[in-house]
Write a structure and sequence with these properties.
By secondary structure, this protein is mainly α. Helix content is 71%, strand content 0%. The protein is globular, with a radius of gyration of 18 Å. The structure holds fe (ii) ion (2 copies). Pfam families: Metal_hydrol (PF10118).
Length: 261
C-alpha cells in the first residue's frame, strides 16, 4: 500500500470526560481504556523493531513505507498517552501493569530474543490490530462514544489499515521462514489478548465492578455470543497460517474511505 498518510492529529484531552465514556458501557469503556494503556509501550516495541531493520531494506518503496509506519505509530502513542492523564485524574492506578508490560516486551523479548523473532511477533501484533481496526470501522463501534475518543480510535484504526502490510513485508525482506512467522503470530496473540484482558480486569477491580453481572453479560456478548470477537480473532489467525498469506489479500480501502480523517 502506497498511501500511508501521516496525519498530525492534536486531540485535546484537557477536559474531564464521563467515567464511562462508551455509551455508558462499563465493559467497553474499560476494554478500550485497557487498549489505551497498552498502546504506547507496545507501539514503542514495534517502532524499535522496525528501526532495527530499516537500514538494511534495499527496496526504496518499502523503506519509505517503513518510515511512514514509524511516524504513524509514533503519533498513535503520543495521542493515546494524553488520555492517561484523564484516567489518572479519575483515580485509576496502572503503574504496576505498565511495569509488567515493559518487563515482558522490553526486558524479556527485546533483550533476550532474536531480532527476527521480535519482528515476527511485531507482525503478529499488526495482524491483530488490523482485525481490531476493521471491526471498529465496519460496525461503526464508536458511533455513540464520547466524540474525542471516537476520533482517537477511528483515526488510529484508519492508520492501522493503511500500514497493515509494512512489517509483514519488512520481515519477508529479511526471511520468509514460515515457522518463524507462525511462532511470532502465536506469541503475539497470547500476549496481546493477555494484556488487553489484564488491563480490563485491573480497571474493573478498581471500580469494584469485577463481579458485576452486567459487565460479565457484555463481556460474553463481545467475545462469544453477539460480536463474536473471539471467533473473529481465531479465524483471522487461521487466515495468517496460509503459506501464501499476505495482509493485502483482504480489501480495506473502502473502510479507510468510509471514515474521513
Ligand atoms: Fe498504532
Ligand atoms: Fe500498527
Amino acid at each position: 500500500m502506497d498511501n500511508i498518510k501521516v496525519r498530525q492529529l492534536n486531540l485535546d484531552f484537557s477536559q474531564s470526560f464521563e467515567r464511562y465514556w462508551f455509551k455508558q458501557s462499563i465493559f467497553k469503556t474499560h476494554l478500550f481504556n485497557s487498549f489505551t494503556l497498552g498502546v504506547p509501550d507496545i507501539e514503542k516495541y514495534l517502532i524499535r523493531n522496525a528501526k532495527k531493520r530499516i537500514k538494511f531494506i534495499g527496496n526504496p518503496q518499502l523503506k519509505q513505507q517503513a518510515q511512514a509506519f514509524i511516524l504513524q505509530e509514533g503519533q498513535h502513542s503520543v495521542q493515546h498517552i494524553k488520555f492517561w492523564h484523564n484516567l489518572k485524574s479519575l483515580g485509576y492506578k496502572f503503574d504496576t501493569y505498565l511495569n509488567w508490560l515493559q518487563m515482558i516486551f522490553f526486558n524479556i523479548l527485546e533483550r533476550r530474543m532474536s531480532t527476527n523473532l521480535n519482528l515476527a511477533i511485531s507482525v503478529g501484533i499488526e495482524h491483530l490490530t488490523t482485525l481490531m481496526a476493521e471491526f471498529v470501522l465496519e460496525v461503526d463501534l464508536f458511533a455513540e462514544a464520547e466524540p474525542q475518543l471516537k476520533q482517537l480510535f477511528e483515526w488510529h484504526a484508519v492508520e492501522e489499515l493503511e500500514h497493515k502490510t509494512v512489517l509483514f513485508d519488512v520481515l519477508q525482506d529479511k526471511t520468509s521462514n514460515y515457522l518463524l512467522r507462525l511462532v511470532g503470530m502465536f506469541i503475539a496473540h497470547i500476549l496481546i489478548l493477555f494484556f488487553l484482558n489484564l488491563g480490563l480486569a485491573i480497571l474493573l477491580y478498581q471500580d469494584k465492578k469485577l463481579l458485576d453481572r452486567k459487565v460479565w453479560q457484555e463481556l460474553i456478548e463481545f467475545w462469544i455470543t453477539k460480536d463474536k470477537f473471539l471467533y473473529k480473532v481465531l479465524f483471522n489467525a487461521i487466515d495468517a497460517l496460509k503459506k501464501d498469506f499476505h495482509p493485502s489479500q483482504k480489501e480495506h480501502l473502502w473502510l479507510i474511505q468510509k471514515v474521513a480523517v
